[in-house]
Structure formats: structure tokens, C-alpha cells
Amino acid sequence: MLSEGPASGYDLMRRFQEVPGAIWPAQHPQIYPELGRLEREGLIEVESEGSRRRKSYAITDAGLAEVQRWLAETDVDHSLRLQPLLRSVFIWLLPPEAIHQHLQREASSYRNLAARYRLMAAAVDRSGDPGSSHQRSTRAALEAVIRLYAALAEWADWAQQTMAGHPDGQTHR
Amino acid sequence: MLSEGPASGYDLMRRFQEVPGAIWPAQHPQIYPELGRLEREGLIEVESEGSRRRKSYAITDAGLAEVQRWLAETDVDHSLRLQPLLRSVFIWLLPPEAIHQHLQREASSYRNLAARYRLMAAAVDRSGDPGSSHQRSTRAALEAVIRLYAALAEWADWAQQTMAGHPDGQTHR
DNA sequence: AAGCGCATGTAAAGGGTTACATGATTGC
DNA sequence: GCAATCATGTAACCCTTTACATGCGCTT
Fold it and tell me: Of A17, A116, A137, B127, which shows the fewest CB atoms inside 10 Å?
């Protein structure tokens, strides 16, 4: 994240509450030790110190090279380790009414989330520096989040149909 | 997973290479200690011992109640902590050709994955006990995986358009 | 002077992966 | 007898979360 410009641990913490945090949450107990580690490894450096003990870090050339190496050379992990999907595997253990209710709520959560990120995307589209690569990356990530939540919303509707009452109906054990 | 019937650690390990493993991978070093822990807590019990030290576990009433409690009472985690999305946030650090290539490959990976799970889904649809709740749950989880990979494939195509050449073009720093 | 938000840390515990390690049975 | 597969485990390490803990500076 420091490749976008210098920042303190506190700055990063707040940034993690916005776009990147939607995708990869992190809180301060993870951030501060990691900044220390990266500094020891020479991938980032203290760029300035401010009031209230504030330390601002900047990425080094070695750090930038390492990010680029990671992006270009490491294998992509395509697994979908999503808790709602795990739940869906075992949802049959609940009584039919509870299944119905659960999927209903899920569908509505997903639609809310999709709407929230659509707003964020609109804000990005409006705000400055519209054609920069960095901006377009952020926008692309947001687009993925929007599409995935939309897909999950439609899936929850579909699942409700599929799980719904049936002739035979083995129920919840 | 033992709510579907008794199984040994080895059985579970293999099952994790199939449908549940697509969603929540786990390997044997996680499985065996966990079986020990669950047994100590009375949520599962040794149902039988076979040759080659094989121990088959079955879920207890307390265990079943605990799964149901988890499904019904705990908050759902809706975050999308997906590595490809994290990568997309920083992809602008690569040169345009590399971005193009990366997104191209991603799109193709997602289409392959979607196709693979469509086959699995077809196998489930064909195979026995077609209307059972358990079967329908598995099928629903597979449907989610298929739809998500399909959505990611289309997103990668879209992102390629969006990231592609532009008048201004701040490039990779 | 009190309270808020800025700012940084540590400790303990849980979850997950990789590597190391071994024993038992079956089929060729 | 040998290889493959069944079957189970441990150790070390990394990542993440929750809880505990503290100090600084501005505003009212």
C-alpha cells in the first residue's frame, strides 16, 4: 500500500477501512509489527517523523521490486474460501423454515453490500485523477466486489428455490 | 462433516479434495488434531476402530447441536478475502503488457474452474438420492462456486478493457 | 481539566500451511 | 520382497484476531 505514497501505520489502518479493507481487512495489531519487519528487511523506510510519535514510511526501490515480483511471479490462489459458502454446505442440518429465512437474509445482505460498493465506485469515478493506472486498479477491484456480491444475491435467490419444499424432504436429521 | 455420517481422518482428508475442499481446503495436519480436540470436547466420538490404526469418528448429539447452533446463531462473515482481488488493487504497478497478460490468464483460469465445477455439479445431479436435503445443500454450494467463477471470468474481461490503453496513461510509476 | 481522536505498541490465542516422520496392509 | 496406498501423527512457522495498554496533542 505504500507504493501509492508514504503513510503511517495509522494512515494505513484507516485506509484499510476503505477500498482495500473491503477485500483484505487488517487492523492495527497486524500493521505495526509488519511495518517493523518490512523496515528491517529494507523494503520500506521511515520517511519522516511527526508529532504524537507519528512515523511515516515510504517504500524503497527494493520494496517496489518485491511487490512487482510478487505480482508477476507468484502463483495466484484461486480458492473461494468464503464462509457463506461453507455454511451452505451444511445448511441442510437446519429445519426448512430456518433455511428459508437464512437464505432470504443472505440475499438481502448481498444486495446491500453490492449497493454500498456501487456508491464507493461512483465516488471513485467522480473524484480526481480519473485516468491514472492506480485509480483504474482500485476501480477494477471495486467492480469485482460489486459483481461478486450481485452474483451471490442471485445465487441466494436460486438456492432458496432449490432448497425449498420438495415431495420427499429428508429434513434436518 | 461428520454430520453426514461417520468417517476417519483419512476419509475426511479425501472428502476435502472434493466438494467441501473446493470451498474450504484442509489437509491432514489440521484434521487429526482437530478430531482429537472435538473428541475431548464430547462433540464427536470414536465409533469404530479398523485395521491400519484406522479410527472412525461419529458426531454426538452435542456435536450436532453445536453445528446447528453455529449455523443459526453466529454472524455470517461476508468479506471477500480473495487473493485475485487483492492483486487487482496493485496491478497498476506492472507494465501495461503484463497487466493485459495477467488478466487474460485469469479470465481463462476462471473459465476452466467454472467448467470443472459444472462437471461436478452434473455428477451430483446424476448420482443417487437426488432429492435429499444433504444433496441439495452440496448442489447449492457448487452452484455458488460456478456462478462466482463465471462472474470473475467476466470481470477479468471487463477489467482488461478498463485497464487497457488510455490517452493519458500514467504507467507503472 | 476533561474528553476526544491521533498514534503506537504488546500478549495471547486461534487457525492454517509446510515439512518432517512413521507404521500398517494390500497387491504384484 | 517391494511398492503403493492407507493411516496417523508432530513441529515449526506464518497469519490473523482479540484484548490489554499507553502516550500525545488539540479543542472546549
Answer: B127
